[in-house]
Amino acid sequence: MKSHTYKVRGMHCASCVAIIERALAKETGVKSAVVNFASETAK
Q1: What confidence tens digit (pLDDT) does each residue in 4-41 have?
Q2: Which residues partner with 29 through β-bridges?
Q3: CA-to-CA distance for 1 and 17, rounded, in angstroms?
Q4: What's the pTM?
């Protein structure tokens, strides 16, 4: 399993984190998605 880290900009609150995690998790081939608000990253 490969792991990728991406920079995410424009998050304003914890709700943004949840929305992005749900959207990423729906993509084909994605097993899990973890978004960090403080470091503005998605893994």
Answers
A1: 999 999 999 999 999 999 999 999 999 999 999 999 99
A2: none
A3: 23
A4: 0.83
Q: What are the structure tokens assigned to 40, written together?
A: 């503005």
The span from the CA of 2 to the CA of 14, in Å, is 26
Tokens describing residue 32 = 């899990």
β strands within 1-43, DSSP E? 6-7, 35-36, 41-42
How many residues in the chain? 43
The label of the residue with tokens 């304003």 reads 12
Q: Quick one: which of 43, 30, 35 has its CA closest to 10?
A: 35
Distance CA(37)–CA(35), nearest Å, equals 6
Radius of gyration of the chain (CA): 10
